């Protein structure tokens, strides 16, 4: 991760999702917000996409906890884990989670004002993904150029002293024979 933009975006998004995920899982931060989220997830569990396909009703409590746990885990990975691939996995997980959130808001017929934060963070996560992709391409191009420069460079090797002396002696003494 070479960009200050990518680092700061990762840390800020990670801390945000750590906060929001904790809100969804427990009332430690705010009892009122947690209570509102519990009411909202009752509505969202009814429009969960797989519930119609597999004929399984997802309990609102477990749906809320699963989304919150995913956000907490991915937020910790984005903010504090130094490995690029782990951050990418967390970013893609959160991106899919927010696609689900946008669908859920739409299916539950929420107003745009309720859907807007999910859309904003969806676009921020997509932007982070694009920035990381561009940095990876740039780093790979620089690495490839460095390898090509080293490959095209002619190696200047100096002959060993023994082979130099043999050639010198051979040339000088062979002249005398002819």
Break the fold down into its secondary structure elements and pairings.
Layout: H1 4-25, H2 31-46, H3 49-53, H4 60-80, H5 84-107, H6 112-152, H7 161-177
Q: Could you estimate the helical fraction of the residues in percent?
A: over 70%
SSE order, one letter for each helix or strand: HHHHHHH
Cα shape: elongated
Mean pLDDT: 84
Keywords:
178 residues; mainly alpha; Novel acetylcholine receptor chaperone; cytoplasmic vesicle
Structural write-up:
By secondary structure, this protein is an all-alpha fold. It has one domain (4-152). It has seven helices and no strands. Helix 1 packs antiparallel against helix 6 (112-152) and helix 4 packs antiparallel against helix 5 (84-107). Belongs to the DoxX family.
């Amino acid at each position: 991760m070479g960009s200050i933009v990518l680092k700061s975006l990762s840390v800020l998004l990670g801390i945000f999702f750590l906060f929001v995920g904790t809100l969804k899982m427990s009332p430690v931060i705010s009892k009122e917000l947690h209570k509102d989220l519990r009411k909202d997830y009752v509505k969202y569990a009814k429009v969960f996409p797989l519930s119609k396909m597999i004929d399984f009703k997802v309990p609102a409590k477990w749906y809320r906890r699963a989304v919150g746990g995913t956000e907490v885990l991915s937020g910790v990975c984005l903010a504090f884990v130094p490995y690029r691939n782990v951050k990418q996995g967390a970013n893609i997980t959160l991106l899919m989670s927010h696609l689900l959130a946008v669908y859920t808001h739409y299916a539950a017929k929420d107003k745009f004002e309720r859907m807007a934060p999910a859309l904003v963070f969806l676009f921020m996560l997509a932007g982070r993904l694009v920035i990381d992709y561009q940095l990876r391409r740039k780093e790979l191009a620089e690495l490839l150029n460095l390898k090509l420069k080293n490959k095209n460079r002619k190696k200047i090797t100096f002959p060993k002293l023994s082979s130099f002396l043999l050639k010198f002696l051979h040339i000088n003494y062979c002249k005398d024979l002819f």
